[in-house]
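User: My collaborator sent over this chain with a note saying "see what the structure looks like." That's all I know about it. Can you take a look?
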Amino acid sequence: MVTSETVVTEVLGHRVTLPCLYSSWSHNSNSMCWGKDQCPYSGCKEALIRTDGMRVTSRKSAKYRLQGTIPRGDVSLTILNPSESDSGVYCCRIEVPGWFNDVKINVRLNLQRA
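Assistant: Without extra context I'll predict from the sequence alone. Here is the result:
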């Protein structure tokens, strides 16, 4: 169980991408979700977007996109037209089979006025 935190600073209203890459991705065994707030013990709190390992299976809003190549492990979250309420911590959880193997990446988004 690995948890790290990255900070992304961007200007309000400009598309922002929160990085999440996993080099050992396998579409047979990895799925993932992005949630708002720190990564919880399991799953994603307030899941914004989920995949089944190959494609997006659910999203909370059209403003959330995965524009990377999911089967290659690029599950970076793009937020279109972010507002001040989008500031804060996000959790990228890559589900890896086995006990406590999930990769958890916390990304703190700081949005500033232009």
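A starting point for your reply to your collaborator: Residues 2-112 form a domain with the Immunoglobulin-like fold (CATH 2.60.40.10).
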